[in-house]
Amino acid sequence: MAADPLSPAVSDRICKHMNDDHASAVLAYARHYGGVAEATTATMRRVGTEAMELEVDGQSVLVPFDHPLSDSEDAHRTLVAMLRAMPRPADA
Fold first, then answer.
1. What angle do CA 42, 90, 34 make, to 5 degrees?
2. Model confidence at 73, in pLDDT bands (50, 70, 90)?
3. Which residues, in sequence order, are CB contacts of 14 under 8 Å at separation 6+?
4. What per-residue confidence (pLDDT) applies to 91?
5. Which of 73, 70, 22 is nearest to 44 (CA)?
6. Average pLDDT of the chain to the nearest whole number
7. What is the rounded CA–CA span in Å between residue 3 and residue 70?
8. Of the four listed, 21, 38, 50, 82, which is most buried by Cβ atoms within 10 Å?
9. Among candidates 66, 67, 2, 61, which has minimal Cα distance to 26?
10. Strands 42-47 and 51-56: what pairing?
11. Spatial CB neighbours of 24, under 8 Å, sequence gap ≥ 6
12. Average pLDDT, integer, range 6-33
């Protein structure tokens, strides 16, 4: 199946999926990449070619990507890679 261009509709689909199924990852993006270490809530609002826009504790936060995203599959690979690149909390 071919990847979809990163259109507003595709961005909406990605955001809905992330917010519904991966809310903890969105909060982790806000804390690590958004620089809001004490964030308590985060919602993914938009995924563009250059950055994702999060709403973090009521404020807009842009998280730039390390390269321009080409399509929906690139967005998926990049979001997963960003999550995997974060330091893991130490086991208690």
1. 25
2. very high
3. 44, 47, 72, 75, 76, 79
4. 47
5. 22
6. 93
7. 9
8. 82
9. 61
10. antiparallel
11. none
12. 97
What are the backbone angles phi and psi of residue 62, rounded to the nearest 5°?
A: -95, 130
**Model confidence over 26-67: pLDDT tens digits?**
999 999 999 999 999 999 999 999 999 999 999 999 999 999
Domains and CATH numbers, the chain: 8-85 (3.20.180.10)
Spatial contact of 29 and 80, defined as CB atoms under 8 Å apart? no
Q: Average pLDDT of 6-24? A: 97
Please say whether the dihedral angle defined by the alpha carbons of residues 65, 33, 85 and 8, taken in this order, is positive or negative. Answer: negative
